[in-house]
Amino acid sequence: MLLAIGFASWARAADAEWSAIEAAANKAGKLTLYHNLPPPGDEGLIAAFEAAHPGIKVETVRLGSTAMMQRFEAETAAGACQADAIMTLYDEAENRWIDNGWILQWTPPEAAAYPPEFRHRDRLFTTQLFRETIVYNTARVRPADAPKSYADLFDRKWKGKVGLNPPWRSVAAQGAIAFWEKHLGITGIAQRLKDNDVRFFSGSAGVMQAVVRGDVWIASLIDPAVINALADGAPIAAVYPETGVPAAPANVFVPAKAPSVAAGKLFANWLLSEQGQTALQDSAGSPAARPGVKAPKFVPPSSALKITLTPSLLTPDYQKAMLTEFRTIFNVQ
Q1: What pTM did the predictor assign?
Q2: Fewest beta carbons within 10 Å, which of 176, 269, 275, 326?
Protein backbone atom coordinates (compact mmCIF):
# COMPACT_ATOMS: atom_id res chain seq x y z
CA MET A 1 0.00 0.00 0.00
CA LEU A 2 2.84 2.35 0.88
CA LEU A 3 4.50 1.57 -2.45
CA ALA A 4 1.25 2.27 -4.30
CA ILE A 5 0.80 5.55 -2.46
CA GLY A 6 4.40 6.52 -3.18
CA PHE A 7 4.06 5.70 -6.88
CA ALA A 8 0.83 7.66 -7.12
CA SER A 9 2.51 10.66 -5.49
CA TRP A 10 5.45 10.40 -7.90
CA ALA A 11 3.08 10.15 -10.88
CA ARG A 12 1.16 13.23 -9.74
CA ALA A 13 4.42 15.16 -9.34
CA ALA A 14 5.58 14.06 -12.79
CA ASP A 15 2.25 15.08 -14.34
CA ALA A 16 2.44 18.46 -12.60
CA GLU A 17 6.01 18.98 -13.83
CA TRP A 18 5.05 18.15 -17.41
CA SER A 19 1.99 20.38 -17.21
CA ALA A 20 4.29 23.22 -16.16
CA ILE A 21 6.53 22.50 -19.16
CA GLU A 22 3.54 22.57 -21.52
CA ALA A 23 2.33 25.83 -20.00
CA ALA A 24 5.75 27.44 -20.40
CA ALA A 25 6.01 26.24 -24.01
CA ASN A 26 2.59 27.63 -24.85
CA LYS A 27 3.52 30.91 -23.19
CA ALA A 28 6.62 31.13 -25.41
CA GLY A 29 4.31 30.46 -28.37
CA LYS A 30 7.21 29.69 -30.72
CA LEU A 31 9.66 26.91 -31.43
CA THR A 32 12.81 27.38 -33.46
CA LEU A 33 13.86 24.05 -34.93
CA TYR A 34 17.19 23.37 -36.64
CA HIS A 35 17.17 20.23 -38.80
CA ASN A 36 18.70 18.56 -41.81
CA LEU A 37 15.79 16.52 -43.11
CA PRO A 38 15.94 16.18 -46.89
CA PRO A 39 13.24 18.32 -48.52
CA PRO A 40 10.29 18.20 -48.29
CA GLY A 41 10.75 16.11 -45.15
CA ASP A 42 9.72 18.74 -42.62
CA GLU A 43 6.39 19.94 -44.01
CA GLY A 44 4.12 17.14 -42.80
CA LEU A 45 6.05 16.83 -39.57
CA ILE A 46 5.67 20.49 -38.64
CA ALA A 47 2.00 20.48 -39.65
CA ALA A 48 1.37 17.49 -37.37
CA PHE A 49 3.15 19.11 -34.41
CA GLU A 50 1.32 22.40 -34.82
CA ALA A 51 -1.98 20.52 -35.03
CA ALA A 52 -1.17 18.75 -31.76
CA HIS A 53 0.03 22.01 -30.16
CA PRO A 54 -1.86 24.85 -31.88
CA GLY A 55 -0.52 27.44 -29.47
CA ILE A 56 3.03 27.03 -30.79
CA LYS A 57 4.30 28.28 -34.16
CA VAL A 58 7.34 26.49 -35.56
CA GLU A 59 10.14 28.31 -37.35
CA THR A 60 12.64 26.05 -39.09
CA VAL A 61 16.23 26.42 -40.19
CA ARG A 62 17.29 23.69 -42.61
CA LEU A 63 21.00 23.22 -43.26
CA GLY A 64 23.32 20.38 -44.22
CA SER A 65 24.66 18.48 -41.23
CA THR A 66 28.12 20.09 -41.30
CA ALA A 67 26.80 23.63 -41.81
CA MET A 68 24.21 23.19 -39.07
CA MET A 69 26.79 21.90 -36.61
CA GLN A 70 29.04 24.84 -37.37
CA ARG A 71 26.16 27.28 -36.88
CA PHE A 72 25.07 25.77 -33.56
CA GLU A 73 28.64 25.69 -32.29
CA ALA A 74 29.33 29.31 -33.29
CA GLU A 75 26.08 30.60 -31.79
CA THR A 76 26.47 28.67 -28.56
CA ALA A 77 30.12 29.62 -28.11
CA ALA A 78 29.06 33.25 -28.52
CA GLY A 79 26.32 32.86 -25.90
CA ALA A 80 23.58 33.39 -28.48
CA CYS A 81 21.98 30.00 -29.12
CA GLN A 82 18.93 30.44 -31.36
CA ALA A 83 17.60 26.87 -31.51
CA ASP A 84 15.04 25.40 -29.12
CA ALA A 85 15.46 21.90 -30.54
CA ILE A 86 17.85 20.34 -33.05
CA MET A 87 17.41 17.29 -35.26
CA THR A 88 20.61 16.02 -36.83
CA LEU A 89 22.71 12.96 -37.55
CA TYR A 90 25.02 11.80 -34.81
CA ASP A 91 28.56 13.16 -34.90
CA GLU A 92 31.40 12.71 -32.44
CA ALA A 93 31.48 16.49 -31.95
CA GLU A 94 28.23 16.17 -30.02
CA ASN A 95 30.11 14.42 -27.22
CA ARG A 96 32.27 17.52 -26.91
CA TRP A 97 29.15 19.66 -26.76
CA ILE A 98 27.83 17.44 -23.98
CA ASP A 99 31.10 17.80 -22.10
CA ASN A 100 30.87 21.57 -22.56
CA GLY A 101 27.38 21.60 -21.06
CA TRP A 102 25.80 22.74 -24.32
CA ILE A 103 23.20 19.94 -24.53
CA LEU A 104 20.50 19.57 -21.92
CA GLN A 105 20.47 16.43 -19.78
CA TRP A 106 16.93 15.25 -19.14
CA THR A 107 14.62 12.28 -19.57
CA PRO A 108 11.68 12.74 -21.96
CA PRO A 109 8.72 10.70 -20.72
CA GLU A 110 8.43 9.00 -24.13
CA ALA A 111 12.07 7.86 -24.04
CA ALA A 112 11.05 4.93 -21.84
CA ALA A 113 9.75 3.16 -24.97
CA TYR A 114 13.20 3.01 -26.60
CA PRO A 115 16.13 0.60 -26.26
CA PRO A 116 19.21 1.90 -24.38
CA GLU A 117 21.32 2.33 -27.53
CA PHE A 118 18.88 5.01 -28.71
CA ARG A 119 19.43 7.17 -25.61
CA HIS A 120 22.93 8.65 -25.73
CA ARG A 121 24.05 10.00 -22.34
CA ASP A 122 20.47 11.16 -21.69
CA ARG A 123 21.04 14.06 -24.07
CA LEU A 124 20.67 12.66 -27.59
CA PHE A 125 17.55 10.66 -28.40
CA THR A 126 17.38 8.65 -31.63
CA THR A 127 14.33 9.34 -33.76
CA GLN A 128 15.21 7.64 -37.07
CA LEU A 129 17.79 5.46 -38.77
CA PHE A 130 19.17 6.78 -42.05
CA ARG A 131 20.20 3.58 -43.85
CA GLU A 132 22.77 3.66 -46.65
CA THR A 133 21.19 2.16 -49.74
CA ILE A 134 22.24 1.58 -53.31
CA VAL A 135 19.83 3.12 -55.79
CA TYR A 136 19.74 2.78 -59.57
CA ASN A 137 17.83 4.28 -62.49
CA THR A 138 15.57 1.55 -63.86
CA ALA A 139 15.51 3.16 -67.30
CA ARG A 140 19.30 2.86 -67.48
CA VAL A 141 19.98 -0.35 -65.59
CA ARG A 142 18.21 -3.70 -65.85
CA PRO A 143 17.45 -5.41 -62.52
CA ALA A 144 19.63 -8.35 -63.53
CA ASP A 145 22.60 -6.00 -64.03
CA ALA A 146 21.96 -3.82 -60.98
CA PRO A 147 24.54 -3.68 -58.20
CA LYS A 148 23.95 -6.11 -55.35
CA SER A 149 26.64 -4.94 -52.92
CA TYR A 150 28.56 -1.80 -52.04
CA ALA A 151 31.66 -3.35 -53.61
CA ASP A 152 29.90 -3.12 -56.97
CA LEU A 153 30.25 0.68 -56.80
CA PHE A 154 33.92 0.20 -57.67
CA ASP A 155 33.28 -2.01 -60.71
CA ARG A 156 34.81 -0.38 -63.78
CA LYS A 157 31.64 -1.01 -65.79
CA TRP A 158 30.10 1.85 -63.79
CA LYS A 159 32.93 4.28 -64.51
CA GLY A 160 31.55 7.82 -64.62
CA LYS A 161 28.09 6.57 -63.68
CA VAL A 162 28.30 6.48 -59.86
CA GLY A 163 27.01 9.31 -57.67
CA LEU A 164 27.84 10.02 -54.02
CA ASN A 165 27.42 12.66 -51.37
CA PRO A 166 30.93 14.07 -50.72
CA PRO A 167 32.25 12.82 -47.37
CA TRP A 168 33.71 16.24 -46.53
CA ARG A 169 30.11 17.50 -46.38
CA SER A 170 28.25 14.49 -44.98
CA VAL A 171 28.67 12.55 -41.75
CA ALA A 172 26.38 9.85 -43.16
CA ALA A 173 28.74 9.39 -46.13
CA GLN A 174 31.66 9.13 -43.72
CA GLY A 175 29.84 6.40 -41.81
CA ALA A 176 29.16 4.45 -45.00
CA ILE A 177 32.79 4.65 -46.04
CA ALA A 178 33.88 3.49 -42.59
CA PHE A 179 31.53 0.52 -42.90
CA TRP A 180 32.87 -0.38 -46.34
CA GLU A 181 36.41 -0.36 -45.03
CA LYS A 182 36.00 -1.83 -41.55
CA HIS A 183 33.22 -4.37 -42.18
CA LEU A 184 33.63 -5.26 -45.84
CA GLY A 185 37.43 -4.95 -46.07
CA ILE A 186 37.38 -2.55 -49.04
CA THR A 187 40.64 -0.60 -49.07
CA GLY A 188 41.92 2.46 -50.94
CA ILE A 189 38.35 3.74 -51.22
CA ALA A 190 39.11 7.39 -52.07
CA GLN A 191 41.56 6.51 -54.85
CA ARG A 192 39.33 3.77 -56.25
CA LEU A 193 36.39 6.15 -56.40
CA LYS A 194 38.50 8.75 -58.17
CA ASP A 195 39.77 6.16 -60.63
CA ASN A 196 36.16 5.24 -61.36
CA ASP A 197 35.28 8.89 -62.03
CA VAL A 198 32.76 9.12 -59.18
CA ARG A 199 30.54 12.18 -59.33
CA PHE A 200 29.73 14.13 -56.19
CA PHE A 201 26.48 16.04 -55.71
CA SER A 202 25.29 18.41 -53.01
CA GLY A 203 23.39 16.48 -50.35
CA SER A 204 21.41 13.27 -50.61
CA ALA A 205 18.62 15.13 -52.44
CA GLY A 206 21.13 16.24 -55.05
CA VAL A 207 22.41 12.70 -55.48
CA MET A 208 18.88 11.39 -55.82
CA GLN A 209 17.96 13.99 -58.44
CA ALA A 210 21.04 13.05 -60.46
CA VAL A 211 19.96 9.40 -60.50
CA VAL A 212 16.39 10.27 -61.50
CA ARG A 213 17.66 12.48 -64.34
CA GLY A 214 20.06 9.78 -65.49
CA ASP A 215 23.13 11.98 -64.94
CA VAL A 216 24.46 8.98 -63.05
CA TRP A 217 23.05 5.48 -63.23
CA ILE A 218 23.70 4.26 -59.69
CA ALA A 219 24.45 5.86 -56.35
CA SER A 220 24.91 5.18 -52.67
CA LEU A 221 23.10 7.47 -50.25
CA ILE A 222 20.95 7.51 -47.12
CA ASP A 223 17.41 6.52 -47.83
CA PRO A 224 15.07 9.45 -46.96
CA ALA A 225 15.45 10.99 -50.41
CA VAL A 226 15.19 7.54 -51.99
CA ILE A 227 11.91 6.81 -50.21
CA ASN A 228 10.45 10.16 -51.25
CA ALA A 229 11.45 9.52 -54.86
CA LEU A 230 9.86 6.06 -54.76
CA ALA A 231 6.69 7.63 -53.37
CA ASP A 232 6.67 10.05 -56.31
CA GLY A 233 6.91 7.18 -58.80
CA ALA A 234 10.45 7.99 -59.96
CA PRO A 235 12.13 5.41 -62.24
CA ILE A 236 14.40 4.02 -59.55
CA ALA A 237 14.88 0.93 -57.40
CA ALA A 238 16.66 0.53 -54.09
CA VAL A 239 18.98 -2.24 -52.94
CA TYR A 240 19.82 -3.04 -49.29
CA PRO A 241 22.77 -5.46 -49.46
CA GLU A 242 22.52 -8.74 -47.58
CA THR A 243 26.10 -8.31 -46.34
CA GLY A 244 24.90 -5.56 -44.02
CA VAL A 245 23.66 -1.98 -44.08
CA PRO A 246 25.32 0.95 -42.29
CA ALA A 247 22.87 3.29 -40.62
CA ALA A 248 23.37 6.76 -39.18
CA PRO A 249 21.14 7.51 -36.19
CA ALA A 250 19.23 10.75 -36.47
CA ASN A 251 18.80 12.33 -33.04
CA VAL A 252 16.90 15.12 -31.40
CA PHE A 253 18.31 17.21 -28.57
CA VAL A 254 17.50 20.34 -26.64
CA PRO A 255 20.27 22.95 -26.30
CA ALA A 256 20.99 23.77 -22.67
CA LYS A 257 20.81 27.50 -23.49
CA ALA A 258 17.78 27.32 -25.80
CA PRO A 259 15.61 30.46 -25.92
CA SER A 260 12.72 28.27 -24.74
CA VAL A 261 13.87 25.04 -23.13
CA ALA A 262 10.23 24.20 -22.44
CA ALA A 263 9.30 24.43 -26.14
CA GLY A 264 12.31 22.30 -27.02
CA LYS A 265 11.31 19.66 -24.48
CA LEU A 266 7.73 19.63 -25.67
CA PHE A 267 8.77 19.11 -29.29
CA ALA A 268 11.40 16.46 -28.50
CA ASN A 269 9.02 14.44 -26.36
CA TRP A 270 6.28 14.69 -29.01
CA LEU A 271 8.76 13.59 -31.68
CA LEU A 272 9.56 10.48 -29.63
CA SER A 273 5.87 9.64 -29.16
CA GLU A 274 4.05 7.22 -31.44
CA GLN A 275 2.20 10.15 -33.02
CA GLY A 276 5.40 12.09 -33.63
CA GLN A 277 7.28 9.07 -34.94
CA THR A 278 4.48 8.21 -37.35
CA ALA A 279 4.37 11.81 -38.60
CA LEU A 280 8.16 11.86 -39.01
CA GLN A 281 8.23 8.58 -40.91
CA ASP A 282 5.35 9.61 -43.17
CA SER A 283 6.90 13.02 -43.83
CA ALA A 284 10.62 12.29 -44.04
CA GLY A 285 10.64 8.70 -45.23
CA SER A 286 13.24 6.88 -43.19
CA PRO A 287 12.01 4.33 -40.64
CA ALA A 288 11.08 5.59 -37.22
CA ALA A 289 13.22 4.40 -34.33
CA ARG A 290 10.38 3.79 -31.87
CA PRO A 291 9.57 0.09 -31.48
CA GLY A 292 6.09 -0.84 -32.64
CA VAL A 293 5.60 1.96 -35.16
CA LYS A 294 4.15 0.69 -38.44
CA ALA A 295 6.61 -0.40 -41.12
CA PRO A 296 7.61 2.26 -43.66
CA LYS A 297 6.24 2.29 -47.18
CA PHE A 298 8.32 1.26 -50.20
CA VAL A 299 11.37 -0.05 -48.28
CA PRO A 300 12.04 -2.84 -45.76
CA PRO A 301 11.89 -2.10 -42.03
CA SER A 302 15.16 -1.97 -40.13
CA SER A 303 14.22 -5.22 -38.40
CA ALA A 304 14.56 -7.00 -41.76
CA LEU A 305 18.10 -5.71 -42.37
CA LYS A 306 21.50 -6.43 -40.89
CA ILE A 307 22.05 -2.95 -39.44
CA THR A 308 25.33 -1.54 -38.15
CA LEU A 309 25.11 1.81 -36.37
CA THR A 310 27.93 3.93 -37.74
CA PRO A 311 28.82 6.07 -34.67
CA SER A 312 30.84 3.17 -33.30
CA LEU A 313 32.98 3.28 -36.47
CA LEU A 314 33.69 7.03 -36.55
CA THR A 315 36.32 7.93 -34.00
CA PRO A 316 37.70 11.50 -34.24
CA ASP A 317 41.11 10.32 -35.45
CA TYR A 318 39.57 8.05 -38.06
CA GLN A 319 37.28 10.80 -39.34
CA LYS A 320 40.18 13.23 -39.57
CA ALA A 321 42.36 10.78 -41.48
CA MET A 322 39.51 9.90 -43.85
CA LEU A 323 38.74 13.51 -44.68
CA THR A 324 42.39 14.37 -45.15
CA GLU A 325 42.74 11.49 -47.61
CA PHE A 326 39.62 12.43 -49.59
CA ARG A 327 40.46 16.12 -49.69
CA THR A 328 43.98 15.34 -50.89
CA ILE A 329 42.97 12.85 -53.57
CA PHE A 330 40.09 14.98 -54.87
CA ASN A 331 41.99 18.27 -54.41
CA VAL A 332 39.35 19.83 -52.15
CA GLN A 333 40.27 22.43 -49.57
Answers
A1: 0.81
A2: 275
